[in-house]
Amino acid sequence: MWTRCIAGSMTRTGNQALCIRRIRGGGASREKRKMGKTDGAGKRPSRRNGNPGRIHGTIAHDLGVAIVSGQYKPGEILPNEIDFSERLKVSRSAYREAIRILSAKGMVESRPKTGTRVTEPGNWNLLDPDVLAWYFATEPDPALIDGLFELRMIVEPAAAALAAERRKPAHLTRMREALMEMERCGVDNEDGRDADRTFHDTVLEATGNMPLMSLASTIGAGVRWTTIYKARKDELPRDPMPDHWKVFDAIAAGGPDEARDAMTELVGAALRDTARALRRETPDNSAPDTAANG
Amino acid sequence: MWTRCIAGSMTRTGNQALCIRRIRGGGASREKRKMGKTDGAGKRPSRRNGNPGRIHGTIAHDLGVAIVSGQYKPGEILPNEIDFSERLKVSRSAYREAIRILSAKGMVESRPKTGTRVTEPGNWNLLDPDVLAWYFATEPDPALIDGLFELRMIVEPAAAALAAERRKPAHLTRMREALMEMERCGVDNEDGRDADRTFHDTVLEATGNMPLMSLASTIGAGVRWTTIYKARKDELPRDPMPDHWKVFDAIAAGGPDEARDAMTELVGAALRDTARALRRETPDNSAPDTAANG
DNA sequence: CTATCGATATTTGTCGGAGTAATTAGGCCG
DNA sequence: CGGCCTAATTACTCCGACAAATATCGATAG
Hints:
Two copies of one chain form a homodimer.
Chain A: H1 55-68, H2 81-87, H3 92-104, E1 108-111, E2 115-118, H4 129-137, H5 142-166, H6 169-185, H7 190-206, H8 210-232, H9 241-253, H10 256-281
Antiparallel strand pairs in A: 1-2
Helix pairs in contact in A: 1-3, 1-4, 2-3, 4-8, 5-7, 5-8, 5-9, 5-10, 6-7, 6-9, 7-8, 8-10, 9-10
Chain A binds a DNA duplex through residues 24-30, 32-33, 52, 54-56, 80-82, 90-94, 96-97, 110-116.
């Protein structure tokens, strides 16, 4: 598994205004860089798979989360490179590479003399898997979840119909295996969620449509995160397997209309479940203050 | 207008295996860097708006175009940083920032000792406006155009229906102005195409759905490029305005079903026109070899 | 002969500093 | 009061060195 730029998981960098304070003082620590033993404060950047994470990816992740969470508002100008990189305890090169990542995702714009400013959210590349992950790194806006479900409701039924017409045997095999894995593990398991995502990805892939396949990562992220949301409430309101099998059968049988209807039902049921779970979470109190992290 | 990372236009860097050869030898040219007077050969990186273009953006653009055009195949390993940056006549820092941009768009993966390799196309962020622009920098795969239209056919009618329910007066105003501008300029003009794109963007924006709004840049690019494709054949087969006004009227009247139907008809007509134009371009000969650039 | 372990070499990653280009801001002059 | 020029700030580029990571190859034990 290669690193792929944004390694980070780093659930919730911390409220303390992103301070990296890394230990492994790579590079030229000729005689400056005292790096006192203040290690305990700064949690190590990433820890998934024991991947220590690259610094630029960590910085990009933290800045991205800070931006999508509103800590840096659109139009706001970040401190200049030297000050900010010093405050983050990283070199200017690493900081610049992080900014380059954010710029590539449309979240900041740089220009000499003016500095680097956060762009309007309309310019953010929300379909980018990393950006979506940054959104879900903190408690995301419920409107975003609604929007993702609306997108699924639009795209997935149509994709299922196309898949029913164009699927190759390999796709059917993968779908079947994914569903069987899903049955074996259950949706409350990480493996089960992966299998769920694989199934939906394969449906999109079976369309043979490259833009739709690119949407797979986005929709897959939506599937995954919303499933986690639902599961977090410790309620398993409904067995999702019959709906999934119905979609599979329709695609295998080559029935576009049946596949579309089945997928509509599947996504609609998931939408209803998630909406209910979210509504229960905030009964009437719309306080956005997340009381999670003690 | 801020730079926004990828400045480049630089239509077709040239067959000579992307060689930048810049003049403005920025940075420390202490006493090395002879930089002979070989200026004529190296076209200046970018020239849109008089924006000279940043080096990292130029390199990312050129590499991105080279990758999507198949010059660097998936799985292939790029030369190491030092060699490649020297060959491109840029510093290692600038090259690394360019690679970081490509990595952020999912097109390359880097790891120590192994190098930087081109990822599988399924991982590329095709919804990214820059990536899409890179595709259209050379003659793109007709399958991509088909895919984009299919995506439009899926998303835009549903978006029109949502827009009919949720549009604000400001949206209607913008749509009306865009259509009037479109009528005034005609679709063969650059301004007319911009107005067309604005109309479609506003429809998506009127849905109030953030992921759909992010798709606007993608679909807008598709609209724009496919329109150019069609116009390049010097045939104006049909007046697109009645279809557009029908969509607008339905959205203004608040009729979701009518808006959906009208938009379906609009996109379908555009699809038929473009398909016909493309088919005429390659009558029966499916040779992928683009005989354009002499 | 095979498999596991360790040294090695290669590549990306990180660092700090120095100098350049670009663009905004403000003063100056017409 | 407006246009032009100067100045200052900022990002951009370059450079050279060191550190970390890891795939490859060799050695050693079974």
